[in-house]
């Protein structure tokens, strides 16, 4: 009799299971899903620092003096990967001109933006505001951490740091 | 007690049926059980378990599906030009389709084999054979692109191919048609087949690191048709088995004349022994001509080299290395089970399946249990090599694969079904109909030492009423079966690209982690790369005009070009400056007698254009790239031959357009405009 009960219970479970739908796990899953569409991280997350943005750069030490080697390496990257859309003057082309960019943003924000572009555009209020002006998502140009630092140094040079 | 058990089972079964029926439509179809959809369902955004590489037959291409969803992931251009992405149209890729006959835009891609290490699929490359103009192709699974195409000399119809040895030491190319060989006089009467026509089996070495192919040696055989083949594995590693038909050596109406004999052959080749003969210098260098084409992801271009020599060895000069095993009725499939002990021949006009034993074959060779010879090749007595026959399995066995659990699955073209049988006791366990007329079947890893016996796909030649009608021409089809249980269960049915002769399925985990996302622009060594928009330029060399153009969301630079004249050949070298995954740019020219380009991030591709009339010609990006994709366009001004309009280019210069006839307006606003260099 106990056996009978077990079988009924089993059948009942199957009944529920077969109607469950959503609980059915497909053959293979992945964690590399599409980026979430949540917006405005600062609103949802009061600890979000809009001056720093989101990404791996939490604190970058920038000496007062220009590092000419870094700036020169950064200029090469600018020519290859950035100059199609950004001018070194204040004039907007596809994206904003770079004149004064180091005064407008903290180094952490810039370096997070150029290395973690998609997440920044999705989450960061300043990046989103810029997107509404330019209407083109800045491409992720696959800059390494060093590339980002060098490009920042080139921006400083462009802004008159010596 | 027994009674109670039966009752309990009945109740349980009833509950189960009720539970399954509860949410399902009642008429799920007679061949399809109600949970089929669930088994083939991969939710949106989720990934499939297997990559399924399917031959495109007369399309010349290789398609990639996901299993179990049957979703088409990509079509890889291999032997045919593909206007969709410029393969075979761009200057860089044209060389891939070069042959000793010149440029050939098409072939008939028949079979696919995945590279193996220790007899297991390793996920590095897939190989494919061109059945018309004999060729072998290697596809790199990092890029899903054709990396290499090697023409096979002394061959006519590379059908018995591209099967491999268990460490991908060799990929095989056996000729379907026997013919007079390339450097003999081929101007002979066709009915001198027996005297003048030869078969060849090419052993193509695969470099273990680069994958590069080279013909190590060719075995010359009597004239027959080689159909399919498989390498030994495990204990039988070192042997290769080839099905051959037309042992009658007919040269006309093969339908009748090549079906006379009760038995044709499986040819067993001890290739390790042949290697020794070659090392001893028994091979002969012959002068032939064949193309060897490779593609570099660094220079982003193909290199086509014409080779002129091959080493051959006559089957008469390799004693104790080649034997014939009689096999009923024009064998097609020649399949070796995962243990390497059993060789299954499938006589396509037979009503039984012979299973040969590798151990018995060796003993028969040792004891010389022969039944005469075939043109000098010892013929092993049928019974001496036979393990047993599967009796009355169906009509017209074609091809067999294995599930790794001791079972074999054979396709039957004539009776249109798949039959599951046990290798040890040769008993038929299950049979399912296919819709209709199955050719090959495929189990993931089903011809390797490690099958993943979860799914089986039937590849059907005829679909007739299976889908909505599309006029006289219909797609061919694949049918997916769940084979994890005792009974095969049909769970999905989907149309294919071209004719799906054969397929290989590879666990997604072996491939997806290595899949390349972009080409690194800093490592782009194309001779025509433009490293940044500032380097964009237009250069005239005589009547050739080279446009070094960049593409990035969302403009082409330069996008105004003047000074092109009738009689010029214009080469657009387009470099995609993007470094983000899945941002290709396209490039098309109005009136170009050519296809478009698709240029992947970090890549350079070239489209040749010969202007055919004076006027303004639009150019644009064809692949939707951003909200401003529709703005990604430009103009080329074509002037008459001898015109004095100077060659100029610009971007971003919008003001001051004058009516000056010589007047290109080339300001500096956009960065990188200027006078063209002469």
Give the topology, please.
The complex is a heterodimer of chains A (162) and B (678).
Chain A: H1 2-20, H2 41-44, H3 68-82, H4 101-104, H5 107-115, H6 117-123, H7 125-134, H8 145-158
Helix pairs in contact in A: 3-8, 5-6, 5-8, 6-7
Chain B: H1 2-21, H2 36-40, E1 50-55, E2 62-67, E3 72-76, E4 98-99, E5 102-103, E6 109-117, E7 120-130, E8 135-140, E9 145-151, E10 158-160, E11 170-175, H3 193-196, E12 198-206, E13 213-222, E14 225-231, E15 239-245, H4 254-257, E16 263-270, H5 271-279, E17 284-296, E18 301-314, E19 322-328, E20 331-336, E21 342-347, E22 352-357, H6 358-366, E23 370-374, E24 377-380, H7 382-385, E25 386-391, E26 397-402, E27 407-412, E28 417-422, E29 428-433, E30 438-442, E31 455-460, E32 477-482, E33 489-495, E34 503-507, H8 508-511, E35 537-541, E36 544-552, E37 555-557, E38 560-565, E39 569-576, E40 585-589, E41 597-599, E42 604-609, E43 615-620, E44 633-639, E45 648-650, E46 674-675
Parallel strand pairs in B: 13-18, 36-39, 38-44
Antiparallel strand pairs in B: 1-2, 1-34, 2-3, 4-5, 6-7, 7-8, 8-9, 9-17, 10-11, 11-12, 12-13, 14-15, 15-16, 16-19, 17-18, 20-21, 21-22, 22-25, 23-24, 26-27, 27-28, 28-29, 30-31, 31-32, 32-33, 35-36, 36-37, 38-45, 39-42, 40-41, 40-43, 43-44, 45-46
Verbal overview:
The complex is a heterodimer of chains A (162) and B (678). Chain A is built from eight helices and no strands. With 162 residues, chain A is mostly helical. Chain A has a domain of 94 residues: Orthogonal Bundle (Cytochrome Bc1 Complex, Chain D, domain 2), CATH 1.10.760.10. Chain A is globular and about 40 Å long. The N terminus of chain A is likely disordered. Chain B is mainly beta and 678 residues long.
Main traits of this protein?
heterodimer; A: 162 residues; mainly alpha; Cytochrome Bc1 Complex, Chain D, domain 2; 8 helices; 0% strand; disordered N terminus; B: 678 residues; mainly beta; Methylamine Dehydrogenase, Chain H; Immunoglobulin-like; 2 domains; 10-stranded mixed beta sheet; 7-stranded mixed beta sheet; 46 strands; 42% strand; globular
């Amino acid at each position: 009799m106990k056996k009978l009960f077990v079988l009924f219970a089993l059948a009942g479970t199957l009944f529920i299971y077969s109607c469950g739908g959503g609980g059915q796990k497909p053959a293979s899953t992945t964690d590399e899903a599409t980026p979430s569409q949540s917006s405005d991280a600062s609103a949802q997350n009061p600890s979000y620092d809009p001056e720093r943005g989101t990404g791996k750069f939490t604190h970058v030490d920038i000496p007062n003096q220009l590092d000419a080697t870094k700036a020169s390496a950064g200029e090469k990257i600018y020519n290859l990967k950035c100059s199609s859309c950004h001018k070194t003057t204040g004039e907007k082309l596809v994206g904003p001109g770079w004149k004064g960019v180091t005064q407008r943003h903290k180094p952490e924000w810039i370096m997070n933006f150029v290395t973690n572009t998609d997440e920044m555009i999705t989450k960061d209020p300043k990046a989103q505001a810029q997107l509404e002006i330019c209407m083109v998502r800045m491409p992720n140009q696959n800059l390494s951490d060093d590339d980002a630092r060098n490009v920042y140094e080139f921006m400083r040079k462009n802004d008159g740091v010596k | 007690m027994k009674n109670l058990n039966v009752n309990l089972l009945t109740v349980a079964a009833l509950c189960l049926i009720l539970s399954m029926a509860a949410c399902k439509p009642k008429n799920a179809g007679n061949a399809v059980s109600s949970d089929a959809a669930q088994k083939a369902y991969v939710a949106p955004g989720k990934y499939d378990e297997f990559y399924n590489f399917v031959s495109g037959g007369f399309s010349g291409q290789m398609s990639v599906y996901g299993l179990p969803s049957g979703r088409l992931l990509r079509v890889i251009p291999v032997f045919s030009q593909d206007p969709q992405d410029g393969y075979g149209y761009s200057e860089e890729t044209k060389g891939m389709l070069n042959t000793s006959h010149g440029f050939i835009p098409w072939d008939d891609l028949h079979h696919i084999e995945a590279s193996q290490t220790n007899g297991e699929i390793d996920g590095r490359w897939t190989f494919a054979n061109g059945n018309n103009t004999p060729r072998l192709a290697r596809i790199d699974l990092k890029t899903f692109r054709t990396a290499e195409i090697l023409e096979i000399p002394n061959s006519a119809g590379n059908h018995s191919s591209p099967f491999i040895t268990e460490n991908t030491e060799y990929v095989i190319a056996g000729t379907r048609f026997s013919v007079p060989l390339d450097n003999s006089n081929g101007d002979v009467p066709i009915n001198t087949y027996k005297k003048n026509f030869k078969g060849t089996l090419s052993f193509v070495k695969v470099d273990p690191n680069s994958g590069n192919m080279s013909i190590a040696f060719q075995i010359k055989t009597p004239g027959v048709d080689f159909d399919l083949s498989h390498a030994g594995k495990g204990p039988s590693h070192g042997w290769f088995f080839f099905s051959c038909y037309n042992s009658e050596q007919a040269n006309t109406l093969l339908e009748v004349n090549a079906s006379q004999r009760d038995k044709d052959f499986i040819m067993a080749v001890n290739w390790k022994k042949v290697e020794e003969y070659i090392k001893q210098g028994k091979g002969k260098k012959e002068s032939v001509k064949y193309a060897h084409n490779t593609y570099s992801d660094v220079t982003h271009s193909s290199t086509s080299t014409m080779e002129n020599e091959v080493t051959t060895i006559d089957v008469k000069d390799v004693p104790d290395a080649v034997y014939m095993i009689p096999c009923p009725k024009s064998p097609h499939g020649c399949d070796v089970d995962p243990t390497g002990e059993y060789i299954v021949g499938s006589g396509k006009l037979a009503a039984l399946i012979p299973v040969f034993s590798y151990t018995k074959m060796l003993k028969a060779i040792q004891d010389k249990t022969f039944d005469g010879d075939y043109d000098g090749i010892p013929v092993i007595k049928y019974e001496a090599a036979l393990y047993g026959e599967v009796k009355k399995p169906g009509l017209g066995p074609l091809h067999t694969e294995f599930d790794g659990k001791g079972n074999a699955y054979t396709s039957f073209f004539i009776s249109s079904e798949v039959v599951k049988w046990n290798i040890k006791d040769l008993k038929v366990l299950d049979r399912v109909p296919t819709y209709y007329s199955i050719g090959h079947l495929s189990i993931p890893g089903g011809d390797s030492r490690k099958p993943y016996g979860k799914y089986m796909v039937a590849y059907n030649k005829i679909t007739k009423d299976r889908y909505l009608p599309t006029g006289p021409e219909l797609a061919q089809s694949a049918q997916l079966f769940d084979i994890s249980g005792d009974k095969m269960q049909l769970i999905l049915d989907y149309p294919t690209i071209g004719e799906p002769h054969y397929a290989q399925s590879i666990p997604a985990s072996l491939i997806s982690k290595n899949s390349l996302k972009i080409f690194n622009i800093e490592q782009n060594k194309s001779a025509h790369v433009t490293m940044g928009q500032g380097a964009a330029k237009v250069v005239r060399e005589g009547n050739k005009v080279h446009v070094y153009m960049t593409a990035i969301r969302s403009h082409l630079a330069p996008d105004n070009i003047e000074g092109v004249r009738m009689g010029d050949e214009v080469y657009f070298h387009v470099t995609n400056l993007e470094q983000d995954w899945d941002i290709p740019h396209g490039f098309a020219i109005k009136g170009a007698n050519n296809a478009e380009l698709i240029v992947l991030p970090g890549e350079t591709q070239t489209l040749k254009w010969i202007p055919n009339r004076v006027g303004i010609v639009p150019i644009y990006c064809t692949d939707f790239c951003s909200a401003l994709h529709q703005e990604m366009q430009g103009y080329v001004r074509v002037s008459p031959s001898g015109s004095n309009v100077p060659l100029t280019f610009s971007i971003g210069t919008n003001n001051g357009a004058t009516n000056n006839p010589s007047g290109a307006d080339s300001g500096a606003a956009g960065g990188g405009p200027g006078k063209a260099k002469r």
